[in-house]
UniProtKB/TrEMBL annotation:
InterPro entries: A-D-PHexomutase_a/b/a-I/II/III, A-D-PHexomutase_a/b/a-II, A-D-PHexomutase_a/b/a-III, Alpha-D-phosphohexomutase_SF, Phosphoglucosamine_mutase
Gene Ontology MF terms in the entry: phosphoglucomutase activity; phosphomannomutase activity
Catalytic activity: alpha-D-glucose 1-phosphate = alpha-D-glucose 6-phosphate
EC top class named in words: isomerase
UniProt GO BP: carbohydrate metabolic process
Cofactor entry: Mg(2+)
Alpha-D-phosphohexomutase alpha/beta/alpha domain ranges (all copies): 84-171, 175-274
Pfam family, one: PGM_PMM_III
Designated name of the protein: phosphoglucomutase (alpha-D-glucose-1,6-bisphosphate-dependent)
Entry EC no(s): 5.4.2.2
Phosphoprotein in keyword set: yes
Domain of life: Eukaryota
Entry's Gene Ontology cellular component terms: chloroplast stroma
Length: 434
């Protein structure tokens, strides 16, 4: 049960089997069956169910032991096997979510010094900052604490620890594309040539980083469930895919049963940190991504969908499809729909072209803008929000000032010209371009 990044009033349930997390279609079937059983019971239909057998099981202790065993076995420290983190300082910022266990029951029991760790006690009102590896306050506080304590690593968890980010020993924040790059470097060293699946908000620089290490990059639809399901599908189709990560920090590994587990991601990074030290390598884990080329600018804007919420999904689809049609009909000269070119994914990272396509839960397209000399200026990703009645507009520019220029062009030649501004609130875009 979790609210994750949503307000604490919006709890939800996540379902898993030994084969990994369930899809939205699976969850809908479970909810339908539960509703039918509830209705039948209210109406007095059918026989009484046998009372369930209830057992109390300490799952967190077993899980913590599991993570400790993985770290000990894979580091195999030559002098102190049971305390391979002895001599390392690690700061954990749990943001008053449920990640404090990682400091107490994993790192400290393996010998790490976690002095200075932040907000380890759970508090669902989140009095300090949102527990989110994308949150600027969370990363800034962790940065300051890592430097103040001369720590080797800082760890930031979200509320339910299915997402994570880190801060290296220099205080540099490693989240978003940087975190995917770090995990890709680790996984490609273990599985040369493997495919890495990400959402289509990832940068061209990340694609080049993965390719430079011999990997394949599959860009796919936003939503961690879409990204993970695509990885499962590729493996089923015979395309070796060991890492699936969304730019929000959600990630899964084939070796970990395709579970979105932020603690497991950090375990992989901690193991790499110790291995590098044992090998006598200079620099912390951040040195593994020094050649990652990042956009000059990156901006996220949101356009609220006007009108009754029950019409939001339909109107969101209309807006995103109108954007695609405008480009295809050459009404937006210079804009080109993008795709990843591989992995049976095309048409703006939206449509599966294989025999068993994954269901579409929200529409989205990615497009690149070129100047009159065919030089790329940047890219945008336009999508329906899965959770809220709005359209998300992600922009990345290769040049300073490029995001404002792209937003101005998009506002004038699409948002106004197409008429979608009749049901989209464009004020955030208008404020940005002034």
């Amino acid at each position: 049960m979790t609210a994750s990044h949503l307000p604490y009033t919006r709890n939800g349930l996540k379902f898993f089997t030994k084969r990994g997390g369930l899809t939205s279609v699976d969850v809908e079937k479970i909810c339908d069956r539960a509703a039918q059983k509830y209705l039948a019971r209210k109406m007095g239909l059918g026989s009484r169910d046998t009372p369930p057998v209830v057992m109390r099981v300490d799952l967190m202790s077993a899980y913590s032991q599991h993570l400790r065993d993985i770290i000990k076995q894979r580091i195999a420290h030559p002098t102190h096997y049971d305390t391979p983190l002895k001599g390392f300082k690690v700061i954990v910022n749990a943001g008053n979510g449920c990640g404090g266990f990682f400091a107490w029951h994993v790192l400290e029991k393996l010998g790490a010094d976690t002095t200075g760790s932040l907000h380890l006690e759970p508090d669902g009102m989140f009095p300090n900052h949102m527990p989110n590896p994308e949150d600027a306050t969370a990363m800034s506080l962790t940065h300051d604490t890592v430097l103040a304590h001369d720590a080797d690593l800082g760890v930031v968890f979200d509320t339910d620890v299915d997402r994570s980010g880190v801060v290296d020993d220099t205080g540099a924040a490693i989240n978003g594309d940087r975190l995917i790059a770090l995990m890709s470097a680790i996984v490609l060293d273990e599985h040369p040539g493997t495919t890495v699946v990400t959402d289509a908000r990832a940068s061209d620089g990340l694609t080049q980083f993965i390719a430079s290490r011999g990997g394949q990059h599959c860009l796919y639809r936003v939503s961690y469930r879409n990204v993970i399901d695509k990885g499962v599908q590729l493996n089923t189709d015979g395309v070796e895919t060991h890492l699936m990560m969304e730019t929000t920090g959600h990630g899964a590994l084939k070796e970990n049963y395709f579970l979105d587990d932020g603690a497991y991601m950090v375990v992989k990074i901690v193991i790499e940190m110790v291995r590098m030290k044992l090998a006598g390598l200079e620099g912390g884990v951040g040195s593994l991504i020094m050649d990652l080329e990042e956009p000059a600018e990156s901006v996220l804007l949101r356009l609220n969908i006007l009108g009754e919420p029950k019409h939001a999904k339909q109107r969101g689809t209309m807006a995103v499809e109108a954007f695609k049609n405008y480009i295809q009909e050459d009404k937006l000269s210079g804009w080109v729909l993008d795709d990843c070119g591989d992995c049976s994914v095309g048409e703006g990272c939206l449509v599966d072209t294989n025999d068993h396509p994954i269901d579409v839960d929200a529409y989205m397209y990615r497009a690149k803008l070129y100047d009159e000399n065919k030089r790329p200026l940047g890219m945008i990703h336009l999508r329906q929000s899965i959770h809220n009645p709005n359209i998300a507009l992600n922009m990345q520019s290769y040049l300073p000032g490029g995001c404002k220029s792209m937003a101005r062009d998009l506002h004038k030649r699409f948002l106004l010209a197409s008429g979608v501004n009749e049901f989209l609130d464009t004020r955030e875009v208008e404020k940005f371009v002034k």
